[in-house]
């Protein structure tokens, strides 16, 4: 990077105050951590608004913030598809139709739901894949944080890595999931407050939204698109060539809006765990709905500044440039950091940097707290030391194991971060592969919840087949202009997609369809070993309807769901 | 569980808000500092905003404590 930031005492003071509170929350929760349930499930006691903000904050990791601002430069408002059609319907579906089974089954994790609904091997496969995937993700995010600290603040790479890992370890070790969740809420507010000045200042600089549209027109036209492509969402999705994403409306609708987003939001334990920590079924259902409201406004916080950055880059007088990578290409992911530098004086600059640090830690702590739950309940308790009849001893023992898993998780994350620094491509590849797990998993869980005939053997076969098809599709196709095998085509070059995104949409669509097909076919070939009684609370048709009459109408999930869907429809129309 | 998260959120934003408000007030005539932010004293405004938010959170936590005495 050409030039670093110079932070003053006021910036460091803001940072230190924030981290003092982060650690303080962990410390204050320490005395409540009496058993494994308190540590790993937050004792199922969270109010819906706390769980809801944590739900959205876990997803608002720094890689997301940096990546989405970068996408704002590259695709403009089209990036909002990841927030509106690509998240809200799935979150509403999770709340209304899936949460009653996740929560009501008393399962402590998504893999455990699979065990209750299907069988042990399906749980085992999912638990192991999930455990490896979360640790890997946590390592990659730590690596990105340390690189950022090194390049931007001039801090030592190793010191940043160890220090951030130590802070996350301290508060998750002390207060477990509760501590992770409470800190995610704190992080959510600091991210909003820290980034808001950039949104206001950058928009003011280009003359507001209308000024932005006017300044964008010549820039966008010179790229060969219609002048308002960067400030609209669906208008130019009639053909793939008319928009910078290179995907048509049905690709966005089916690939992103259905397969990818339902796969991510409805099955990822990292996310679902937040809702499972709520204090009642209604609170658990309201968690994703409450999270959906800030979710749909996050684009204004992180995508809009990215769009302004495109104008700044093309206005010589502004002195705004993105750092270049080794190949001479601008590093779009650094847009948000360069904007911090462009607009913020000492004081709020410290706040902005703290917001970025906070988002890194929220991603990392989320991964670690999901990992230790799956490890303790789904791997250790299932295969290594099953529960005994002595509940008191068990509680203590699993609490100890949960704490050790936290330390172990952080240590392996550090190792993964160093691996990422040595073999960046391999880590990217692994992450791509693991991202393929979600689409088949959604197919299997969906069938499990809504079709009582689905059997254990079928679920296992469906999961495995979906995964293999995803791998095969990734190995046989590649995005145009791919220079590494990481992007695909490592078996043969059968088909070329115009952009990487189209490839990942289609990978997910193929995986999800295969998984559905295999699960249905194998279910008919095998017998259902679970009785109707065993499946009560796990399958829609065998579970008594949820009665919300005792809840006042304005607190009911259905009311909230209507509000959420109405709001997102209004936003979509406004920015059509 | 255990603690009311509104208290730490309220305390933190009150402290940070005070810090930035005071810093913004002291540096209000430092034109060089605020050239990057288009001449706007963002420290003062952000600080005041955070202070209001922090105090609101604290007020809400006192209110919910009164409703549910433990």
Structural overview:
The complex is a heterodimer of chains A (576) and B (70). Chain A has 576 residues and is mainly α. Chain A has one domain: Up-down Bundle (Sodium/glucose cotransporter). A two-stranded parallel sheet of chain A has the order 1-2. In chain B, helix 1 runs antiparallel to helix 2. Chain B has one domain. With 70 residues, chain B is mainly α. The longest helix of chain B is centred in the last third of the chain and has 26 residues. The chains are: A mainly alpha (576), B mainly alpha (70). At the A-B interface, helix 1 and helix 8 of A face helix 1 and helix 2 of B.
Number of domains of chain B: 1
Question: Which geometry of chain A do the CA atoms define?
Answer: globular
According to CATH, the fold-level topology of chain A is: Sodium/glucose cotransporter
Mean pLDDT across every amino acid position of chain B: 87
Helical content class of chain B:
55-70%
Per DSSP, the total helix count of chain B is: 2
Ordered list of secondary-structure elements with their pairings:
The complex is a heterodimer of chains A (about 575) and B (about 70).
Chain A: H1 9-29, H2 36-41, H3 48-59, H4 62-75, H5 88-104, H6 110-117, H7 120-153, H8 157-205, H9 208-222, H10 249-267, H11 269-276, H12 281-302, H13 304-313, H14 335-343, H15 348-384, H16 391-422, H17 424-434, H18 438-450, H19 456-476, E1 477-479, E2 495-497, H20 500-525, H21 532-535, H22 557-574
Parallel strand pairs in A: 1-2
Chain B: H1 6-26, H2 42-67
Helix pairs in contact in B: 1-2
